[in-house]
Amino acid sequence: MASLCNSSSTSLKTPFTSSSTCLSSTPKPSQLFLHGKRNQMFKVSCKVTNNNGDQNVETNSVDRRNVLLGLGGLYGVANAIPFAASAAPTPPPDLSSCSIARINENQVVSYSCCAPKPDDMEKVPYYKFPSMTKLRVRQPAHEANEEYIAKYNLAVSKMRDLDKTQPLNPIGFKQQANIHCAYCNGAYRIGGKELQVHNSWLFFPFHRWYLYFYERIVGKLIDDPTFALPYWNWDHPKGMRFPAMYDREGTSLFDVTRDQSHRNGAVIDLGFFGNEVETTQLQLMSNNLTLMYRQMVTNAPCPRMFFGGPYDLGSNVELPGTIENIPHGPVHIWSGTVRGSTLPNGAISNGENMGHFYSAGLDPVFFCHHSNVDRMWSEWKAAGGKRTDITHKDWLNSEFFFYDENENPYRVKVRDCLDTKKMGYDYKPMATPWRNFKPLTKASAGKKVNTASLPPASNVFPLAKLDKAISFSINRPTSSRTQQEKNAQEEMLTFSSIRYDNRGYIRFDVFLNVDNNVNANELDKAEFAGSYTSLPHVHRAGETNHIATVNFELAITELLEDIGLEDEDTIAVTLVPKRGGEGISIEEMASLCNSSSTTLKTPFTSSSTSLSSTPKPSQLFLHGKRNQMFKVSCKVTNNNGDQSVEMNSVDRRNVLLGLGGLYGVANAIPLAASASPAPPPDLSSCSKAKINATTEVPYSCCAPTPKDMNKVPYYKFPSMTKLRIRPPAHALDEAYIAKYNLAISRMKDLDKTQPTNPIGFKQQANIHCAYCNGAYAIDGKVLQVHNSWLFFPFHRWYLYFYERILGSLINDPTFALPYWNWDHPKGMRFPPMFDIPGTALYDERRGEQIHNGTIIDLGSFGDQVQTTQLQLMTNNLTLMYRQLVTNSPCPLMFFGGPYTLGSDVESPGTVEIIPHSPVHIWVGTRRGSILPDGKTSNGEDMGHFYSAGLDPVFYCHHSNVDRMWNEWKAIGGKRTDIQNKDWLNSEFFFYDESGNPFKVKVRDCLDTKKMGYTYEPMPTPWRNFKPKTKASAGKKVNTSSIPSVSQVFPLAKLDKAISFSINRPASSRTQQEKNAQEEMLTFKEIKYDNRDYTRFDVFLNVDNNVNANELDKAEFAGSYTSLPHVHRVGDTNHTATATLQLAITELLEDIGLEDDDTIAVTLVPKKGDISIGGVEIKLADC
């Protein structure tokens, strides 16, 4: 066992370390998992690189967390080359010495890849950018319309025609493909040394220049200088399938030499190494987003890690950057044919076309793929920090050789391709959900694998063959280290002398604190420490030694913190072979040792502002008849939710997105509305609850009444020894599910033997019925805990006691409710444990849509959305972003407005509206359908408040709603609990697990850990899912071709999509004017029947053919929505009247219409009979 420690070092000279890190290791062979024979040995130097990639800056300050995640967060560091490796500016290749390219060390390409030679290379000029009038804008491939596709096909067809008529024309299709072959497969030499543009800092600039000229050639061939290449945005769920326009047989964009199994909508695997992953499409997408986070954020905090290491001309030691390794390489492999299969021409496949560098350019999708690779360069720099271009002169002055669209030869330098806009192109924005996809703890937090049951590392290594998953224990050099010690030294897990045949794909994964039954297809685990990977690649002809030898290191300090094992002396390690395991041997498992390290933080940040507006009618669009009008105070709330603080500075973007970002503000209740602490209900006056205004619940929802309510004590938390940890419902094992079923079964048994026992199943369900359907009254006024600031604290207390009752019934005080994490793609299906007939968790009164893995619609209002599952997931993440981030920058927007006892004017918070209510509706039976007992459905069970608690999934759903309270506060800014005393002192009444009655206050439920529970972490990808501009940016709808607003309104019935034009009060406003006044789109006198679901959507600058099922559009201004709900018995007037206001200042900026005097508005009805009195745009003071 080796001890590999360098104690006072700070930086490793490798492209895979940040500007403030250091590997600790003995000298070892060099290469981080891509291509080729490793036959040189390098030492690791512990210097710190500066921001621009130079190696001459020493520093004593190191940030451990990100740097060593960069070293080993996902793929670790294997044989990192010193940053001071020999490098010099790379000149353009010597075309006169161009030779045959090679497929591998013994097989040459059957044709010449050499470009036509200029008469005199010395006279080839440097390229100068031509003047331009308009940027070429590259769009995502999946959004391309037929006109664009026809243009692109025409251009590539003309390119292919040149192959027949002018085979040596440098702008022909094969000649353009040959550029990649020659530069990447050994045809070019400089000074007698072979040139290779992959696996070093040349990768990004070479391919950027390559696509630049290719794009201009394509535009020239169709006489369209504005034509831009598409990008295959495999980093977003909507782009994780092969772009459809390239899969049309018979077109010029089609290529027959592709993997046929990856057609027909297969989700790409961005970590693909030749083997198909046996998992769900959702898990693959989750893996992909996790990989993108690791490669763009964790592992690339500084230039050298992202771009790759300095290029040493002629060397076969490769130092690729993070993105070049993954996802760049795997996308090539996934698209190409299977190695060893038979090609259409009868030859044996080497991965052609995309799966091998020599042939990749022969597939038109190559340029679409590399367009997104190039986009990652821009996205990486946009993240900020030290993520800047390299400033080292050897990189900046490196050169390449290309022909332009006029067939003229040019030399180009790296320094001239750093700004895409100066080059004349840009990328149409798309959301980047991977930015918030850091792997979080799954099942093992705080649960230590029994290391005594595993063989120690000394009994396992040396390992002759890694042909199956193995687990072993290993001692740590020290435990329970202080933060100062952790900052000074990083704990490293080191694998020594890994050997394998480098002609094939290689990969094995490393996990901590799991056994060898781990599901290794799920990468989004904190326990996943990293992978060793290698792809086949050859530099030189004639090599016969195919055995690579490498060392592999993983940084684990933070990982051990995350999974709760930092105080353990011994831990469990599991290795899982993924590809080529039978050929992998590992000489030694080195002891865990310490080396200095640091961290770079990339926190999610957002502004935190509050509402500012002119007086307007009141109500935020959920449930019930609106018959009172309120004014909105033009004050900015302070952090604690009070309304007494005046502020002169208001952040327009967040505040007014809060007003109208997605669902708008309809009749927002004044924050200063009359409120007082809500006392617990008067149980002696409990009456029949109501299903709707005129129909009572057929049974009593009233709780058992204590003898004297005045003597009911306030609850005190019992002592605890261990937190209850609520797990995600989709990740539970059979033992947990059996426990949960047993507890609910015992609850249900009490209904038969002790029907009035307050801890019985129906009595617990009745709590929700009574509090939420008008059974309770206070001073003669109906009590309602929904649609106000009481919503979150009531349900938190409700679940608190319910959870303790369950634990008591199975004698397990640590039992915790699961949460249905519908905010993550992995949880966007109905939790399977609740869908097993005959079990206690099953409820027959559910809609058919919950079965068969259907994706939930977090905006559901009773009708199924006709769209793809991917689009639904995208909609869901967008909704979550809007409701948790955009629309709730301050407390009262998130929690809801102050509660006015007995009022039927409702002011719910963002999450209560969406996704809380739509999940209820989606699960429950369809309104009007026939229930199992023959009655007509009102949405039972989950789809109506009176019956929701009768479905066990209710508590799982509300567990995630409660989790959103924590997640919202974790975002920071002004996202804090309300400090208003009326809220803090409001009270509820519950029975505990022993059947004893207690009163509780809101102020005592603000910290879940003090209440004895917390949530197992899960990623929150919605944090980075802000809607971005789609098709209309800068393209104005012809407003003169559609009727004006005065011709359309008043509108008696909104029964189909309509478009109209409307004049703005002012255009081309200054930033100061925009900060002072928000532009508001106002819909007045919206009338509808409040007994049914109601919804219509609003879009700007689209026509009435818009696809209204895609919510992730910047053009999507918002929605008006309402769910049926009744406060009072006997109310026969079912017509609600409301006003909807949408903030559009930023939206008009985003879609490029801020300078227009008139804009187009489109309304799309989704549900209900709706009339609208009028529409106007006005400016409101901020």
UniProtKB/TrEMBL annotation:
Tyrosinase copper-binding domain residues: 198-215, 363-374, 786-803, 951-962
One CC-aspect GO term: chloroplast thylakoid lumen
Question: Does the keyword Thylakoid belong to this entry?
Answer: yes
Where is region (Disordered) located? Answer: 1-26
Protein location: Plastid, Chloroplast thylakoid lumen
PROSITE patterns referenced in this protein's UniProt entry, alphabetically:
TYROSINASE_1 (PS00497), TYROSINASE_2 (PS00498)
Q: Which SUPFAM superfamilies match?
A: Di-copper centre-containing domain (SSF48056)
What does it catalyze? 2 catechol + O2 = 2 1,2-benzoquinone + 2 H2O
Instruction: Give this protein's Gene Ontology molecular function annotations.
Output: catechol oxidase activity; metal ion binding
Could you say which cofactors this protein requires? Cu(2+)
**Keywords for this protein:** Chloroplast, Copper, Disulfide bond, Metal-binding, Oxidoreductase, Plastid, Thioether bond, Thylakoid, Transit peptide
List the PANTHER family hit by this protein, alphabetically: POLYPHENOL OXIDASE D, CHLOROPLASTIC, TYROSINASE FAMILY MEMBER
Q: Which family does it belong to?
A: Belongs to the tyrosinase family.
Q: What does this protein do?
A: Catalyzes the oxidation of mono- and o-diphenols to o-diquinones.
Q: Mind telling me what this protein is named? A: catechol oxidase
Highest lineage ranks of the organism? Eukaryota, Viridiplantae, Streptophyta, Embryophyta, Tracheophyta
